[in-house]
Amino acid sequence: MTGPCALSNVALLLYGGEQIWFHSIETDEHVFAIFDYIESMVRESSVLPPPESLRDRVFDVFDWGLSPPPLASLESISD
């Protein structure tokens, strides 16, 4: 049986009213990178773009079958 998402190992990060979705979170390094990302946002008290190590795993839950969001839209999260 599968869930509602066709992508595997999906994680949702909710921070500052924003949703940031990750797919293919398969290793300890991925999990540590997400926790480091969260810590950086807490330090800055702001939503930040995902670090380079996670950018290829970010997707738009409503548009994942097409292309990943452009970097400019990820950077605008903190605006």
Blueprint (SSEs and pairs):
Elements: E1 11-15, E2 18-22, H1 28-44, H2 52-55, E3 58-59, H3 71-75
Antiparallel strand pairs: 1-2, 2-3
Please outline what is shown here.
Helices cover 33% and strands 15% of the residues.
Notable traits:
alpha+beta, 3 helices, 3-stranded antiparallel sheet
Question: Can you offer a commentary on this structure?
Answer:
The chain has 79 residues and is α+β, with helices and mostly antiparallel strands. The chain is built from three helices and three strands, in the order E-E-H-H-E-H. It has helices at 28-44, 52-55, 71-75; strands at residues 11-15, 18-22, 58-59. The protein has a three-stranded antiparallel beta sheet with strand order 1-2-3, with no helix packed on it. Strand 1 (11-15) and strand 2 form a beta hairpin. The chain is globular and about 35 Å long. The relative contact order is 0.18.
